[in-house]
Design brief:
The chain is of the alpha/beta class and 481 residues long. The chain has 3 domains: 164 residues, no CATH class; 101 residues; 182 residues, Glycogen Phosphorylase B (Rossmann fold, 3-Layer(aba) Sandwich), CATH 3.40.50.2000. Helices cover 23% and strands 21% of the residues. The chain is built from 12 helices and 24 strands. The strands form 5 sheets. Strands 3, 4, 5, 6, 7, 10, 13, 14, 15 and 16 form a 10-stranded mixed beta sheet that branches. The longest helix is centred in the first third of the chain and has 18 residues. The protein is elongated. GO terms for molecular function: ADP-heptose-lipopolysaccharide heptosyltransferase activity. Its EC number is 2.4.1.-.
Length: 481
Amino acid sequence: MSTESLAARRRTASVIEAAMSAVSTSVAGVTGDPRMPVVAVPAGRLAAPGQGAPAGADAHALAVRPAPDANPAPAPADGAGALPAAIVDPGPPVIEGPLGIRYDFNYGCRVQVPAGPWRVRLLDLDADVVLFDEPVDDGIVSSTRKYFVRFRIEVLRDGELVFEHDYDARGQRVYMRLPVGTLGDILAWFPYVDEFRRMHGCEVSVSMGAALWTLFEDAYPELDYVPPDDEPKLLARSYASYYLGIFFPCDDRTHQPTDFRVSGLQKTIPYLLGLMAVERRPRIAVRDTTRTIAEPYVVIAAQSSSQCKYWNHPTGWYELVKFLKASGYRVLCIDRQPAHGDKLMWNLIPYGSEDFTGDLPLQQRASLLLHADFFIGLSSGLSWLAWALGKPVVMISGFTHPLNEFETPWRVINHHVCNSCWNDTSIEFDHRDFAWCPRHAGTDRQFECSRMITPGQVIRTVRSLMTNLDLDPRRAASEPA
């Protein structure tokens, strides 16, 4: 950064400070206008995962808290300035600087200073803006933004710049946390973990459920795979850390810079990591590529985690399976469970399909998918796995907009009826309600988004796929192996 640019930023910060000085206040060693994006909280651990912030919390704030050994000061009585809900306590800053200063980028940009007349500045190098410029005495400054920002840290004492650091992860350890067991989300987001490593030249440790490692560790040997329980040890030696997911409530801008309902499931993560928001297909290393079924076959998956995600046409799967078998295909169902539901809503394995269900290793699922002519499923994890393996995917979904998933020319949706509630920014998904249908629950229009996707529409899509890819199971069955 040029000296002229830094000087301009500092002049801007000085103008703002001068304009606000008439109404400044002092709380917990922090001086500034209570209307400015600064909050003071007592010392101690951050909020536990899932703990909500009090009413009035400023999502755009920077949090300034006393150092762990400082005497806590009371938080503002009106609740304004409380930390947004935290999902991790990263402990004290890891990296030792001069004069007792410590810093890191674990769960935001964090700067700790000892007792004394310090001034801390945080800048966004890419947005070209001063984010924070305030006196701090024996405290920790922590950015509310927990996603990737290319920060610059400046610490002054008696008006003299004594420490500066621009974010640079090259050669450093970076920790990333993925969900433990959500197959589709992890398949969608994993390519950006490696892209971040490549772009920044850093060493990345990534945590997720161990059952999912087998899909990636042979294809991405440069990454360090760690169990979620090792997170505290990783944070203690990491330069930066990032927590990958979609966060509720959806207007949370502490952990995600954009609304996933607008950006789509996959592309929300490149925004979070400061990467180009382009579709990336993950690499999957299938360990057993042996074909175990000689006849041409199609793989289907009909189960999901919420009723709105199902194909709710009463005879949909029955008619589709009958068509596929009449065309010469074996039809294999690879859901984890042959039956799933809640209360009065239960969904069974499609009639006429072969039962390949079970809680089986994902490598076994991948081996079976590898030799299928194509896959038919819902907006769910097995569709993402088939896509990751390069298989043609017919996706049947009415509750999501097509932009929500990966691009496929064989996406089936009926725009003549209610649809795409998942991507409606006026609606927030309720994970606790298996029968969630936000616009028509309890009416005869409930789940019409998929009930009105007819077998004929899906069969026409399958015919189009078979024609375009020149798939003829009867011809293939008659050809010598």
